[in-house]
Design goal:
This protein is an alpha+beta fold and 625 residues long. The chain is built from 21 helices and 23 strands.
Length: 625
């Protein structure tokens, strides 16, 4: 998230001053490009490692600030939520054993985090989306107390004008509203940076766009969210929608999303990409800037282009152009933002070596991508790969080809030649690219997650299955083997009873009836589905009563003709409810005291689930309750 010393751009005076600096930064960049001041004789790589913090029960922790302070290392920084942290790796020249060095640095720094976390009963996990995240972990109390995050949340909320909406359809479907940007905190990525010569930037950038689909398809690791099986890389849909300020209207409008793959090939220079983003996206946040970039250039200094970098940090391209200064020299680079974190360090480094090799190994015939492919095919490939992963069929140079075949037949050979051209050690080339090849021929991390979760769900409730899955991922990560070597679950691992709240064990697949439905309809549903409790709604999601088998029997004993009754005639109107945060112990107590067999679960006046005596009976004698 970059710069933290920011403020909301609602203040018109600050906003106007910031925009002036933003425009001057573009002019300064163009001058540096014209005068060949941008570094072009070296290629460096860098990365940002995001990771999750989980407590002893595999739930999201909320102690990131405490752990960050205890680590006391400038490589570490905050993320949006209190259960995530980020490591900024030192840049390395792309040559020799650079990937081994990167692997060693990630290992060393993550071990530092592990040690610090262990002292606080906190574990670290590399995963694209933490399986155990629930909606309650997206409430504002979990947001990291940081001016940038609160300012961004304020501005996005202001510009959207309504709650954020999430609609993702895969094998399952998820449709939900939320009041803050914290949905974005579900995403955990491994962001890869590749320095590019400025004169080759547009060709490199367009090539990066073209290969995004197949590279994403072989790297997917995020198929689950809230227990729903969605896309192979659900982060792509989740991140886009979590920061989407575009509300629906009766008018047909074309507005570009804040998170975007773009709609066309890049052209001109890197400055033109920045110009397009300034034109298409409003300034969200600003900061005070002491030195004007044009003035700095006149003095012979290299400007940091702080306004441009801040605004660029609020435009979320999956391939993001970046400007930076290192060692007093300015450079431009491409930031690959679509690769998920994990599932292991070696998998991440293999992903990086593969991408960097493909980028450097670009054949001359692909220097002008607009002449080779329709951009809409490239964009469609990216979406198809996010949805289907390795199983996607892509359009590639006017032919249909599977991700697997494209990787093995064309992109892996390019990656080998690219890494050889860059002078990367043969051992690293073969060791890392072999992982990609084996993954293409075998199983991807996303597939492993899906198969494991489906197996666990055969004998476990959703929340316990998600916790067991998280625990198993953590154990496999400690072994260090790449994910294609992870064994498939054949036996249900022994595990503790994790559930403690109603939200952990409630049933969410509800059969409901309306208060004006025929009572006969309700009783038949109860018979057909073998259920003894049916919530009654006054309108969708609004609980107004409860129909139980006890009520039905009373009516039957009175020998009243059910076709003459509606549900509201026989339902219980004074319903005792609980929330998702009610403890299971308390729910059991309520049911015993009131001699009832179920409790509807309500969140913000909306029916979200139900628990019955069958759901809690296994916990009644648990010593932990």
């Amino acid at each position: 998230m970059g710069e933290h010393n920011v403020h909301s751009s609602i203040d018109q005076k600050n906003r106007a001053e910031f925009i002036k600096h933003l425009l001057d930064d573009i002019k300064a960049l163009e001058i540096m490009l014209e005068q060949n001041l941008i570094e072009d004789d070296i290629v460096r790589i860098g990365a940002e490692q995001e990771f999750c913090l989980v407590d002893r029960n595999w739930r999201p922790a909320n102690n990131a600030m405490e752990i960050l302070k205890a680590i006391n290392d400038p490589h570490f920084t905050t993320e949006l939520a209190k259960y995530n942290l980020e490591i900024n790796l030192d840049p390395l020249e792309l040559k020799k054993d650079c990937f081994s060095k990167m692997e060693s640095e990630i290992t060393r720094l993550l071990n530092k985090a592990k040690k610090t976390g262990a002292d606080r009963e906190t574990k670290i996990l590399l995963t694209g989306i933490l399986p155990t995240i629930r909606k309650r972990h997206l409430e504002i109390e979990y947001m990291t107390p940081n001016p940038r995050y609160s300012a961004l949340n304020t501005m996005l909320r202001s510009q959207r004008g309504t709650d954020f909406e999430l609609h993702i359809r895969g094998v399952d479907e998820l449709s939900i509203h939320h009041e803050s940007v914290l949905f974005e905190a579900c995403n955990t990525s491994f962001q890869m940076h590749l320095q590019v010569p400025p004169q080759d930037f547009i060709s490199s950038y367009n090539w990066a766009q073209a290969v995004s689909g197949p590279i994403l398809g072989i790297c997917t690791n995020s198929p689950l969210l809230f227990g729903r099986e969605l896309w192979s890389e659900t982060r792509i849909a989740l991140f886009r929608q979590s920061l989407d300020i575009r509300g629906a209207s009766h008018a047909l409008k074309d507005r570009r999303a804040r998170v975007s793959f773009s709609n066309h090939w890049a052209y001109g220079s890197v400055a033109q990409i920045f110009k397009n983003d300034i034109a298409e996206h409003k300034v969200m946040i600003s900061r005070d800037i002491a030195a004007n970039s044009l003035s700095e250039l006149k003095k012979g200094n290299i400007p940091k282009l702080q306004a441009l970098n801040l605004h660029n940090g609020t435009v979320y391209r999956w391939n993001r152009p970046c400007y930076g200064v290192g060692g007093g020299k300015p450079h431009v680079r491409i930031e690959n933002r679509y690769i998920p974190s994990g599932p292991t360090i070696i998998d991440e480094v293999a992903n990086f070596a593969f991408w960097a090799g493909v980028m450097i190994g670009r054949p001359a015939k692909y220097d002008q991508m607009p002449d080779c492919m329709d951009f809409r095919d490239v964009k469609a490939n990216f979406i198809k790969a996010a949805r289907m992963g390795k199983d996607a069929i892509l359009e590639w140079m006017e032919s249909a080809i599977s991700v697997q075949d494209l990787i093995i037949k064309e992109l892996l050979p390019l990656a080998y030649s690219g890494l050889e051209k860059a002078g990367v050690d043969k051992n690293d080339r073969e060791r890392l690219l072999e992982i990609i090849e084996n993954r293409a021929k075998g199983i991807t991390p996303s597939k492993w997650n899906v198969k494991s979760y489906r197996f666990l769900r055969k004998s476990m409730k959703e929340y316990d299955a998600l916790r067991t899955l998280t625990k198993t991922i953590h154990e496999n990560q400690q072994n260090g083997a790449p994910a294609h070597k992870w064994p498939m679950l054949k036996n249900v691992p022994k595990t503790d009873k994790y559930a403690s709240l109603v939200g952990h064990i409630m049933s969410t697949q509800l059969f409901t009836v309306a208060e004006y439905d025929l009572a006969n309809l309700a009783t038949n549903i109860m018979k057909w589905k073998n259920i003894h409790h049916v919530p009654v709604e006054s309108k969708p999601g609004r609980l107004c009563g409860l129909l139980t088998w006890t009520h039905v029997k009373k009516v039957q004993n009175q020998k009243v003709h059910e076709d003459e009754l509606i549900v509201s005639d026989i339902m219980e109107k004074n319903v005792i409810t609980v929330s998702t945060k009610t403890s299971i112990k308390e729910a059991i107590k309520i049911m015993k005291q009131n001699e009832i067999g179920c409790l509807p679960v309500v969140q913000k006046e909306e029916l979200v689930g139900i628990i019955t005596i069958k759901d809690v009976i296994a916990f009644d004698n648990d010593k932990n309750l």
